[in-house]
Amino acid sequence: MRARAAIRPTLLRGTLAVIVICTPAAAHDNGQFTNVTPAVRTWFHNVKSPHGIPCCDIADGHRTDFQMRKDRYWVPINGTWMPVPPDAVLDNVGNPVDDAVVWYSIYDDQVVIRCFVPGGGA
Fold this sequence. Notes:
Number of strands: 6
Strand content: 25-35%
Order of helices and strands: HHEEEEEE
Number of helices: 2
Largest sheet: 3 strands, antiparallel
């Protein structure tokens, strides 16, 4: 009985985490993207994860530095280098800005990397 009671909160938290991760985040456009060309804006609006989920919007895509460490991409987010999940890497979507771009959200102080496009027009 105690084991079952202990499993319930864990399952609930896991279910909520999956729902949050799979739900697109709201974009935060504070006017900082008013001078972006229509082609670049369209690209940001149309990039989707390998699972078909929109990466979000231009306000959620952050130009970034990146490193390769043992065949895996790493990006700095809020001053901390983080590994990019392999299923978030998009190699064949073009890149009109040439810089690497990472889309991420923060839930309960946890960074969730949704998508990553390498730099150099990958």
